[in-house]
Amino acid sequence: MTPTSPTPPSAAFEELYGHAPEGVWAAPGRVNLIGEHTDYNDGFVLPIALPQAVRAYARRRADGVLRLASTRVPGEVVELDVAGLAPGGVSGWAAYPAAVVWTLREAGHGIGGADILLDSDVPGGAGLSSSAALECAVAITYNDLYELGLEAAELAKVAQRAENDFVGVPCGIMDQMASMACGAGTALHLDTRDLSARYVPLDLAGAGLTLLVLDTRVQHDLADGAYAALRAGCERAAALLGLPALRDLAADDLPAALDRLPAELVPLVRHVVTENGRVEQTMRELAQHGPASLGPILTAGHASLRDDYRTSCPETDLAVSVAVTAGALGARMTGGGFGGSVIALTRTADADAVAKAVTEAFLAEGWAAPHVYRAVPSAGARRES
Ligand code: ADP
Ligand code: MG
């Protein structure tokens, strides 16, 4: 490979826009330890933020014009009129940042234009929430540029609404809350009903553990209807059971509730209720026995996604089974599913061997080698300069 020295983003900003940025704001991607597809059921989740982040280099503009560029999309500057933003009016990657600006305006905040350059090391479409990281980076940028004074949870709700109502993905609140509110060295236990948050210390390295992220490089498309259909199924099941949300179904009442539901909703409800239980079980295990005890819960969570919720795919299933056979304490797919990434909890001494085994299994199938990262619980969204 030839060494390259890419232009630093702040210099690229000046070249593009003819002036220096006012500041730099960063918002991270995430992996969810446990609690998958529970966030749109008012349930519990337990994500950590990744070291990888989307950075927004930005400067306020007085003329109501929003200019957007990304180092991932060289040569393109999308120019929009803030007052004219409307869902459906912006396509492609620029819809995500534009969505946040539209949402703030819709909420009645006195905002105007900006020049923004995005720079990111969060892999896109890998289930690591680059979309939420991008939205949250723009949300905190605007919060500071226009002195809106919004709290982290309010900004997360703005970012979620942007993705729901402008981009058109009916996601829950987990990804945006994780990106906004996670803390270094901790996992975020979030009750998605009222957004109450507890920070759980998670010193993986100190416990001799590594959390591998294996990006299968199978691209999901959450806007393709499968995610929306699952969400609608959960809402229908809750309505049939006379509950506000599936979170209100206690584990003890699950067998009787399943008897009352049409066959196609049974596995969905079983996943959501048992998955909420796994989040709470994880909290107890962490408190009593530490992170090395979490492996079997992760693997059980994967089985539930594979067999009941059916959001796994051959690549994530193979990565999980090979990781566990090769010595991982436990593994599961993370994120919305249909591809994306698998997390594998390993003793640090075993991490390389597990990554190698999964890579070799993929190559033997004729698939591209997974991208391998090591997840370290990192800080949430912040201003960097
Ligand atoms: P995920 O959130 O799991 O990464 P999504 O499909 O929800 O996957 O979001 C990925 C999309 O977000 C990309 O297709 C692109 O439109 C947008 N995106 C993410 N990062 C960037 C970036 N650095 N620059 C431009 N667009 C980005
Ligand atoms: Mg996303």
Show unreliable segments. none
Estimated radius of gyration: 21 Å
Distance between the termini: 32 Å
- Summed up, the helix count is 11
Cofactors and ligands = adenosine-5'-diphosphate, magnesium ion
Strand order of the largest sheet: 5-4-6-3-1-13
Helical content (DSSP H or I, runs of 4+): 25-40%
Largest sheet: 6 strands, mixed
Strand content: 15-25%
Mean pLDDT: 96
Number of strands: 13
Assign an overall shape.
Answer: globular
Order of helices and strands: HEEEEEHEHHHEEEHHHHHEEHEE
Structural class computed from helices and strand pairing: alpha+beta
Topology:
Blueprint: H1 9-17, E1 23-32, E2 44-45, E3 47-61, E4 65-70, E5 78-81, H2 95-106, E6 113-120, H3 130-145, H4 152-167, H5 174-181, E7 186-191, E8 196-201, E9 209-215, H6 226-240, H7 254-259, H8 266-289, H9 295-309, H10 314-325, E10 330-334, E11 341-347, H11 351-364, E12 371-375, E13 382-383
Parallel strand pairs: 4-6
Antiparallel strand pairs: 1-3, 1-13, 2-7, 3-6, 4-5, 7-8, 9-11, 9-12, 10-11
The structure holds adenosine-5'-diphosphate and magnesium ion (MG).
